[in-house]
Amino acid sequence: MNPSSIAVPLKVAVRDAAIAELKALLGDRLSTATAVREQHGKDESYHASVPPDAVAFARTTDEVCAIVKICARHKMPVIPYGTGTSLEGHIAALYGGLSLDMSQMNHVIEVNAADLDCRIEPGVTRKQLNEYLRDTGLFFPIDPGADASLGGMVATRASGTNAVRYGTMRDNVLALTVVLADGRVIRTAKRARKSSAGYDLTRLFVGSEGTLGVITEITLRLYGIPAAINSATYSFPTVADAVNMVIQAIQSEIPVARLELADDVQMDAINRYSKMNLPVLPTLWIEFHGTEASIAEQAKLIEEIALEHGGSDFRLVDTPEERKRLWQARHDAAYANKALRPGAHIWATDVCVPISRLAECIAETQKDIRESFLPAPIVGHVGDGNFHLTIVLHPDDPKEVAEGNRLNDRLVARALAMDGTCTGEHGIGYGKLDFLVAEHGEAVSVMRQIKKALDPDNIMNPGKIVRV
Amino acid sequence: MNPSSIAVPLKVAVRDAAIAELKALLGDRLSTATAVREQHGKDESYHASVPPDAVAFARTTDEVCAIVKICARHKMPVIPYGTGTSLEGHIAALYGGLSLDMSQMNHVIEVNAADLDCRIEPGVTRKQLNEYLRDTGLFFPIDPGADASLGGMVATRASGTNAVRYGTMRDNVLALTVVLADGRVIRTAKRARKSSAGYDLTRLFVGSEGTLGVITEITLRLYGIPAAINSATYSFPTVADAVNMVIQAIQSEIPVARLELADDVQMDAINRYSKMNLPVLPTLWIEFHGTEASIAEQAKLIEEIALEHGGSDFRLVDTPEERKRLWQARHDAAYANKALRPGAHIWATDVCVPISRLAECIAETQKDIRESFLPAPIVGHVGDGNFHLTIVLHPDDPKEVAEGNRLNDRLVARALAMDGTCTGEHGIGYGKLDFLVAEHGEAVSVMRQIKKALDPDNIMNPGKIVRV
Fold first, then answer.
1. Within a domain: residue A448?
2. Are residues A203 and B168, on separate chains, in Cβ contact within 8 Å?
3. 0.95 surpassed by complex ipTM
4. Considering the domain boundaries, does residue A454 fall inside one?
5. Which residue in A154, A331, A421, B246 could disulfide with B195, CB within 3.0 to 4.6 Å?
């Protein structure tokens, strides 16, 4: 979407008065430098940069509270910022305002090993957390491609390759501390594993994309590092064969940890970018977690099912180094695609459908791609029914953007007709506002009521998720 | 809590006008008979009956919509009713109004076996659903003690004995159709396994106890019936030994399906009521789901850990009949306790704490019980940190009620101090309004804002969860 059609700058007097107060509070940690502002208005998508008026670097919940109160008094927008790796323009300052950079709030506050949980600040990234946990025997499984901040991952309800077994951010947040639009500070839950005490505010803020408040602390579930891990790749004659194999594996309740698909185009891009030598065929990337005995059993069951569906070229990866290299290549798929066309950007679509419709949804989408002039590899978390068409395009070429829109529109309409969603894990930002309405209908009016109740002046990341 | 101190009857003119319109709509399916009203004002707890003014038996979403619109026009409270098995006075008509009985909306609409999901009406009970699914190879795992309606289970965010492995209602609802206070009908989500499309309305309505709208359709996750199942009981010298064994099992990521605890008093009550002959010692009830090989491995690992913690008298139950009998006895624990004192009621407490604090929490609670004159067996979903003290008392004896309050107050305060919750799975109803405030503090103001935004006239189950 072209932000210029909706972006509205903040009134100069408002902006200057608010910035003066923020400067007094934060000193050097309030920046209005052009480079800093531009970097904070641009995520990893094709969406253009819409820079904020200023960028604040917060260090504590109290400080976030003071910042939000200043902005609330001036009705200046507040846009929480993690690592800038979102994909639907989540951080674009459509109405000007303050980008609230949380990267300095990056401390692991406590790890409760006996309870398999931890409390962290929102600027901690997923790799940083797992590095910190390394000696505890625990890990946090949710892994979007980028090394995103956990705060951003909460805000977009992120998932990644481990969701088949470990769920998404929805399932792995125990509690949040949130600063609301009026400066109230709440903690959404205690540290118990489950609770029936009132409305599920934790889940309300997970996926709220900064539109309801600023997340300043996160309590996460952790998991014991499996005693044994094996990864494998399997090639298939067609995507449909691979998907049908996945359906059967899921139905058989084989507790696979990861079940990822890449089509032949994607495999070629990965081979080039990550210097791999994998077959250029539709490929499933699988990982088994468990005891030695249980992963051997899982691998055997999966191999039987794969064979039934024409699987070939089984490659078992069982050293940690090889495994790390394999999954890094998978995580770098987006960058591999970007490298297909020098200077191009990526437009990562994100539909998710009931798994019984997945083969059909992908097949019809591949037909669209064959008829398009843009390259668009397919990669997906097929165990969840979620896949990405990564359209590689030049965002300043209107013809390419029009074609990107056409492909994405058709894909989303197809997914919704199959009772699927327009976004499995990227979120709405401002890129999918209309799709949200197409998907949810009247339910969007409820989202709008909640937004208005909690943020009547519309200062929290305005223009994202719902139009008010 | 004594409802007479808060119950306020509806004005007669309002009541009569609304009932006349409802009668015209529903005919025989609108009852004002005393016996029907009294039955609909009383759940399975010690809370006194507060009968509604009338009871409606709805058959379709459209009909619910018409009923709610009539009530909204007259500002007559609407109290959704499932099977009446709640435990905190959820269905008491504190402000008069209409009990909306959903038991005739009890159809399984569709089962999507390939997607492991189904769509049902809210009056379907958990046993009815599993009976329906029997020939599909699928099952729905969430099992509170009572044969509750799925609508009620959604509304209270219920769980039960399988939550260690399968999660709670929070984790197993894919989408809901809800009639809101103003008659709008929304569907909260599509049927995709995951989505980042906007606020998580599904999770907002799960656990909302009828205070935000009436649930009229539910899409649930299902699971393949495990290839192999084994159950076992293990006795321990002390509750602390049993709990410490559980902590170690959870930390070792052994994928046990059920991990239940009963103390010696509870075991004695179960033996009497269910004619069992189990050792009268702190006992863990365990169930393994998986393949033959994996459950054998799990059982072996569990046995090793149990031995380390003084476990004895291992009893493996491996025929379906024996297993059914064992778990029926576990599910009937509440009824077994009720039978300890003729004419008595049960007051089931419901705290849930981080598992590292569980042994300490139970030990301090047992000290309280030893010093009390009321019997109070302990049973718990210890894999989640959740346990129930079932206080057996005569609710019309003020001395006993005062003692019940004293024990429960101390228990909840203890759990909150340990970063736990006042309710793991029963909900707030009107019995725990003050505890909700103690637990959530400022966050309750956010719950109140949401309630007011979606139900400004406070007609949806008023007086439950939050005071407005």
1. no
2. no
3. yes
4. no
5. A421
